[in-house]
Amino acid sequence: MIFFLHIPKTGGQTLATRLASAFPPGRCSVMQADILDADALARLSADHDFFEGHLALGTLRDPPPGLRVMTVVREPVEQIISHYRHILRDARNPLSKLAGAMPPHAFLERFGGEMWNFQARCLVGAMRPPDLADHFRGVEFWLLRHFEECLTRLHWLVPSEKLDEFCLLWAVEAGRRLAQLDLRVNASEPDNVDVPALRRWLRDRPERFAVDSLLWNAARRRYEEWREALVRLDRVTGEPSPGALAWEADGAAVWLLRNWHPPLPREEGLEWAAGPGTFSTLRVRRGGHRVLRFDAMAFFGVRWDRVRLLRQADMSDVPLARSMDDGRHIASYEAELGGSGDEETFVLHGAEDVAVLPANPAALNRPRRAFATRNWRLA
């Protein structure tokens, strides 16, 4: 079962309605009444393959088994502006008349408290509701205390600007066809709000929505990781795509997954440069082998003898022997993989050290290439 946690003014109605079109009408539910308690959530999850809704505080504290939760979040300034304009339009909202009678910045100064970090409040509040002491100490501390845990409980976290692309990729991942790919719901109507001025006023006060900024940036990062993993996955075999394959023989293989530049052909074979980040992931299929070997060269701001290999599962160090051929300026690495299971994902870490970073403006203005690698193999 999939539950779409709808955070208002993020494009959630549009995304939920599109995704619902991939399910039989009797097995999905969108734009219905708010979900007020865990019992209602359990009933909906039992009766539907996909359902959406706004949640009361604490409703997701103990979710039904097997429930996969997703949500979409928006750049905070744009979400606040959309929220404010919605209040202006909604005559049923008791704040609507006040909003119409006051300049936008004055209204937000006086009544905007619930809009600050609104998206994080909706997410964290659904899973870890605050108590009175949390409000007394400051809701930002409550949000930050539970922030990472709540993120880990989301199966999909989508930034609103990627909504169209997500629909296409989700359909591939789920093996379902979306019948309403171009649908848009609840688009904003014209009004007299000076949006550029309000945008400037908000951007001068980033501390008001700092946790929502953290949430939005986390969504962008999570989305790119999900997208990259999906695009690089062979839909037939379930393995990383052939473009990530650095070596294979007799059922054993090494794939270079994330944070690698496209390989370059050299006389000695393909050369894979780590970067632009400092953590590069690789997957190994042991095929009975226990030792991973590779060579590295062209170190740029990285000390060759401080390169580390880590297990992604717990970020523990893998024993890594290092040696340098001073004549050829090529470092050789050999790792005793140990562990269990045939496949495992590792992280190659090359921390940047400014003490050995050459003051070369031309090189520094390009995407970072920490070091080049080749001759990946298992033994």
Please provide a written account of the structure.
The chain contains 12 helices and 16 strands. By secondary structure, it is of the alpha+beta class. It has 2 domains: 2-231, 3-Layer(aba) Sandwich (Rossmann fold); 242-378, Jelly Rolls. The strands form 3 sheets. The chain has a 6-stranded antiparallel beta sheet with strand order 8-9-16-11-14-13, with no helix packed on it. The protein has a 5-stranded parallel beta sheet with strand order 2-3-1-4-5, with helices on both faces. A 5-stranded antiparallel beta sheet has the order 6-7-10-15-12, with no helix packed on it. Helix 6 (118-127) packs across helix 8. It is globular. The mean pLDDT is 93. This is Sulfotransferase family protein. InterPro entries: P-loop_NTPase.
Which key phrases capture this entry?
single chain, 379 residues, alpha+beta, Rossmann fold, Jelly Rolls, 2 domains, 6-stranded antiparallel sheet, 5-stranded parallel sheet, 16 strands, 33% helix, globular
Task: Describe the structure concisely for a colleague.
InterPro entries: P-loop_NTPase. This protein is α+β, with helices and mostly antiparallel strands and 379 residues long.
